[in-house]
């Protein structure tokens, strides 16, 4: 087992990793930018190293500084959390070359799954259902038009190095193709430095359902059931839950088997997620694989009583997993509490938190790094907390979430709490009747 782990991240995920490490008897090293000097992950780690100024490229994305911090503190492993360098193959490779264990996927796995076109080909070969589309990247707009004509519209262009909805364009007729082609490639080049795109059939009225998987160094892979992430805005998730209200035992078995087969096909090591689009007929299609821990991992932890961070660390240390697949025994839901103004198109709202009251009670969990007097920097993601509730049924879980949200007081900045409160009263949401397009018709004016 590792003696000391450096957490190459910030905020609530850094604090989350520190807590598990402490329970496992592992020393921790926090890294921080000058903007995060007063953050809780700095206070609660055994050691802390400043790695640069506020800009991410100069601190949390600065690989030489992170490696230097690990070396001067004698850390034998690095946990990247999510975001930042968690799916950066170069960082994983440099850790390996410097004798530091990267608690995540290998460079080969990250590259293989990070390129969406090759990931799709890999999954298709493993027998995982994939959305009909182009064979790899499109070489020209003319090729794309020919492929679209065979599949029939609507279709969607996707950036191969994409994420967060960037480099994606829906095309409903051939006369829209040229503009979409140019816009998608330009956006992809600016965001990812790669303008490669591929084409897929556009799945209408989809659910976004992902399967949590774990693989060890001995070839064993298991799944820990599903999460429904369909409540999202511009491809950014706002609410996640497990199990999915759309799920049936038969569909869970099929999707679980497909996810395990896909992960086993690349001899996957670590904790990861295979994401699917599921249409109204419950046909499912591979979308992408995330080779890291995800923001929404607590909902899985709560429904099967399983510490995913601990499992990540154990797998990285060479400990075998049981290979058991899990089925939820409870219902859990997570609301992302962001410092954003939902009435102003979710504009970020950095600033000083003047008053803070965290909700509590049975079945309520809050993962956060903020406190009264904490100043939210403008340099990073606007998520300040994750509110998780767990209950015997989905109906009870929604009621508990509404109660917990009503107790959650954050003053000094705008937050997404009013949006979540209204969502919990929405009849379609309460009935589990929603798709990824749900928020497009949501009334934000009455928040």
From TrEMBL:
PROSITE patterns: ATP_GRASP, BC, CPSASE_1, CPSASE_2. GO terms for molecular function: ATP binding; biotin carboxylase activity; metal ion binding. Pathway: Lipid metabolism; malonyl-CoA biosynthesis; malonyl-CoA from acetyl-CoA: step 1/1. Its EC number is 6.3.4.14. Acetyl-CoA carboxylase is a heterohexamer of biotin carboxyl carrier protein, biotin carboxylase and the two subunits of carboxyl transferase in a 2:2 complex. It comes from Hymenobacter busanensis. It catalyses: N(6)-biotinyl-L-lysyl-[protein] + hydrogencarbonate + ATP = N(6)-carboxybiotinyl-L-lysyl-[protein] + ADP + phosphate + H(+). GO terms for biological process: fatty acid biosynthetic process; malonyl-CoA biosynthetic process. Keywords: ATP-binding, Biotin, Fatty acid biosynthesis, Fatty acid metabolism, Ligase, Lipid biosynthesis, Lipid metabolism, Magnesium, Metal-binding, Nucleotide-binding. PANTHER family: BIOTIN CARBOXYLASE, CHLOROPLASTIC, PYRUVATE CARBOXYLASE SUBUNIT A. It comes from the Bacteria. This protein is a component of the acetyl coenzyme A carboxylase complex; first, biotin carboxylase catalyzes the carboxylation of the carrier protein and then the transcarboxylase transfers the carboxyl group to form malonyl-CoA. Pfam families: Biotin_carb_C, Biotin_carb_N, CPSase_L_D2. This is Biotin carboxylase. Gene3D superfamilies: ATP-grasp fold, B domain.
